[in-house]
Task: structure prediction
Amino acid sequence: MDGPITPQAAERRRPPVIQPGQTYATVTDKISSIVLVRPTTPGWLAGFLVSFALVMLLFYAIAYLLVAGVGIWGVNIPVGWGFAIVNFVWWIGIGHAGTLISAILLLLNQQWRTSINRFAEAMTLFAVACAGLFPLLHLGRPWFFYWLLPYPNAMGVWPQFRSPLVWDVFAVTTYFTVSLIFWFVGLIPDLATLRDRAKKRSSRILYGILAMGWRGSALHWHRYQTAYLLLAGLATPLVVSVHTVVSFDFAVGILPGWHSTIFPPYFVAGAIYSGFAMVLTLAIPLRAVYGLEGFITMRHLENMAKVMLATGWIVAYGYVMENFMAWYSGNTYEGFTAWNRIAGPYGPAYWALILCNVLLPQLLWLKRVRTSVPALFVLALVINVGMWLERFVIVITSLHRDFLPSSWGMYSPTRWDWATLFGSIGLFVALLFLFIRFLPMISIFEMRELVSESPAGD
Amino acid sequence: MPKARTKSPIYGLLAEFDTPAALLVAAGHVREKGYRRMDAYTPFPVEGLAALLGFRYTRVPLITLIGGIFGGLAGYALQYWISAVNYPINVGGRPLHSWPSFIPVTFELSILGAALAAVLGMLALNGLPMPYHPVFHIPRFALASRDRFFLCIESSDSKFDRQETRHFLESLGPRDISDVPY
Amino acid sequence: MNKAAAYLPGSEIQRVQSGAVWVGISGFSLCLLGAYWNRVQFFHSYLFAFLFWTGIALGCLAIMMLHHLTAGAWGMVIRRLLESGSKTLALMAFLFVPLIFGLRSIYSWTQPIQLPSQQLEYLNIPFFIARAALYFLIWLWIVYLLGRWSQEQERGEGSRLLRKMRLLSGPGLVLYGLTASFAAIDWIMSLEPHWYSTIFGLLVIGGQVLSAMAFVIVALVLLAARQPLVGIVQPRHFHDLGKLLLAFVMIWAYLAFSQLLIIWSGNLTEEIPWYLHRWQGGWLWIGILLIVFHFALPFFLLLSRDLKRSGKTLAILAMFLLLMRAMDLFWLVVPGFSPERFRIHWMDVAASIGVGGLWLAFFIWQLKKRSLLPVGDPQLPPALERTHE
Result:
């Protein structure tokens, strides 16, 4: 342990995760200059304004909801869970890929994570923020949201811990908190870099406060790395647990199509699937606009494609098992629900999801597709849509026709449902625009570490 | 610690190196020479450096484990007390002490406790936030977050002597040496 | 590197192998004797033994394909063990034949009982045997191809074959996932034909992978202390394997708990009897022991870095986990025969040891045929490189 450092032998033969020719100084200057030097471009401004307009739409929809109540949405008996829950599950799932990229790939010592992890973590935070909105709005009286938390109160009541909806509160708040500190801990050394590079006094003070006096001491790094690894180790089962709890929202009930034991792993895989699709959807334009092809290389894109292929198959496995058991069990209601999904009034949505989630992604077996940027971008969009549809089919088809035909009904979203969905996408994108403008979107210190480990370094 | 030494007019001597390898070699020599109170400042974690500076074990994992166990126990106790003692209600005929239902929240709170303990423990042991530190007086120290590697021998070291230590540091071939004032 | 190319030393392993053969034959003879008096019990015990050892073989196959896909250093030191372990599927295919003669003693759906018509379409003896044949064909075909390419590696062209193995492992894992799940449904779930659970296949797969990882760790530690592997397997290899063992313990617990919570909360008459059978007449104690010793204890012990880096302690824990795996499988299978109260028959033990003896002898026979490390693989030298940890 005390000996001189030996050159890192790993990763020599594969395509580089960082282009040759980069030095400590160039990675530092290139990434920090995006934040500090580069002026606000018209493209950034235009993109931000468009997404901000959607945020305004979201605020408008929320304001009207608070005034008029959830009756403005398409939900009613029997479909009491509509877009709000679909969007919640969809957004939470998107968030999961960010944590996984950061945490699991760190634990597995995969160096290719370095250039995308910061960005993926930010994506997680914003996606969870969007997700958190929906159950709150769905409460009916969102201003009493704090009733969900266990605190001594004058009414003398407590939350009911046998309900998965209360587990959700704990899972999502824990997830948001841990993602936030994970992201912030990762940012500390880079905030110190920005503090030392910033020209304006105001930004120096701001970044200085956030960096908390980080000075890169060897002892600090030692504890820092330990804590960061531990956080990664904690975040990994946390991600799994969060989407598991989300799946319990459905599976713990006894509705046919919801009450299925495969739900936890199948939801987790679906979350990773859609999350990686979202990372690709965002990373592909970003690397083009900011000239980051040297950091987000073809190898990243191909690896993400492989993860999508693998998780896509777990999702497909879930579809197979669900349908097989619906048939095998001989249970009338299970059988009907499966048939109603395939051939009922929402059948087109089911077939579209099979096309988007199972059939088209098989193209990813081909290396030619995995290494073609436009093809990947299109497939990522397709999977995003497919996974949204999957949640739509799960939520709506099980509710609209359950046990008694006399209580069947149809669900159709209203313009306010759509406004909230697109508004939340706007919120997500607007937050991302702010992030890439004011914080380093690639971990600078980890890139320096990569430089030191690459053959050309030192 | 004797008073005479802490009264030294400077905090220490800061040597600047170009590469992590050079810093590691220098840190090794400094340690061999018998210096103990020193620190190195690098733009990214350099493997083996903390060990060379005489630092091996950190208590962060232990703090994390305690935080996790505390979070889990507290979470389970909270649910048990609420559901079975303080506010017992019948939910679908399930027992008041529905242990399978209590696992998810117990798990979440274990993770929350462990994660908070890890970060707060790390910051506390590092003494952060610390807005003021003598090394920030050196303008070139800004490069410690870019591409330079610094080694600081602190004046509180019993072997520290402003002249001698400076000569010794010079012999290690640094790019630059500066006095760090308090 | 010359050391790495070495084969298993002859004399000692020869003794172990012939010992295993004798243990196998005596276990089998005892069981045959027992079958004379209690034919039904023989088949129950034999099914359990067959499932346990087939599980290890299948787990080896799954981990091997995972290793080909991810190419981690951890997989290089256990590659031969995984290959030999998965090749025992040939033996298990042969040992499946006796089960065919006992289906009527094992599965209640072979008797005229009240079942939905779809289930009768699926659960009937000809289709059951045809499916089992198909599973084994698929598994053996993958094992054969991967084994052949791995052997060809030793004659050069390492990287080209590496690519081939990787290309097969992707679809191979998909095929494994589907066939192993349906095998779990056929062989275990259908013991209680009214019950169904969509996670069950994954639960059994998780158990298989955990069993195989525990077995491989025990075998590697035993070999690493002897020539020719002395000094080649390093603490970091054990560390990686220990981490994987921890991950598999957690995945198993996750899957088992998910199924429990969902069925327990739903409390439906179609599903809950399965747990009721396992919560009464002493079975509950097995369940509690599983929570403590199959999950809690190994979980906390495996958090320790020192334990994972020391081969010896890791192997002791892995051995213990292997026992727990047997207990878990027992808890899955046997309440199907005896739901009222806990029972264990001497033939359960004798059959497991009998099949295990033959399995081990077959495993060693395969292991002896090749060098102990995949010397032709270009990934081997970096995997064995000494690091300064």
Q: What stands out?
A: Chain A has one domain: 28-457. The two ends of chain A are 20 Å apart (CA to CA). The mean pLDDT of chain A is 85.
